[in-house]
Amino acid sequence: MAKPNTSYEETRKKRMEENRKRMEALNLPQLAQAAFRTSSSSPKPSPMKRQKPRKVEKQIVEVRRSARVASQPTPVYREVEVKVARSCGRVSKHRDLSNRVYADEHSRAEATEQAEAFESGLGSDYPTFVKPMLQSHVTGGFWMGLPLSFCRKYLPKRDATVTLVDEQGEEYPTVYLENKKGLSGGWRGFAIAHELVDGDALVFQLTRPTTFKVYIIRVESS
User: Which of 138, 162, 212, 213 is deepest in the core (most CB within 10 A)?
Assistant: First the structure.
């Protein structure tokens, strides 16, 4: 039984010797030692450090102000509720038409009769005519149409400046439109200045080719 054990040991030693020679031939022992030295000499990575949160320091600083307002007290701002009115529709540049006063037929006729009586007392030296006032003359559009026959006979055949002179001698230049036979620009100022209303009766006296003397007969309020 001793021979088999001896033969096994000899065979194992022989294989080990052969393996050692092969490793030496491939230079494996030196490579293994060099790899071991490299791994042992390299520093180990340090564990990750936790970053501490940055501290933000709050400082109170003086706000720079203009020299012009530096001496004035610092303004205090507050939130306030502001109600904005919304406009609906088109805004008219004329007076409020809701305050129109309409003359009754009796008062209108009476003022017209008084104006015609006054006209007859002026004589026939200068052309005249009577014009009862309507709402379109004294509010809204302020268009003053003149009698067609009078315009054709006495007024210029072109657009011109026609001056209205009231009973106090104040003059009001207006624009006469020949094709429309009426007064446009300037008439509004005359009507407002003299507070003309519906039912008033005016006597126009042509004292010059483009100048009217105007007399106002007030309608009696009902």
Answer: 212
Q: Which tens digit of pLDDT belongs to each residue from 123-149?
A: 889 999 999 998 888 887 788 999 999
pTM for this prediction: 0.55
Contacts of 172 (CB under 8 A, 6+ apart): 163, 164, 165, 166, 186, 189, 190, 193
Poorest-confidence range of 109-113, 178-182, 218-222? 218-222
How far is the C-alpha of 186 from the C-alpha of 202, rounded, in Å? 16
C-alpha count within 13 angstroms, C-beta hemisphere, residue 38: 6
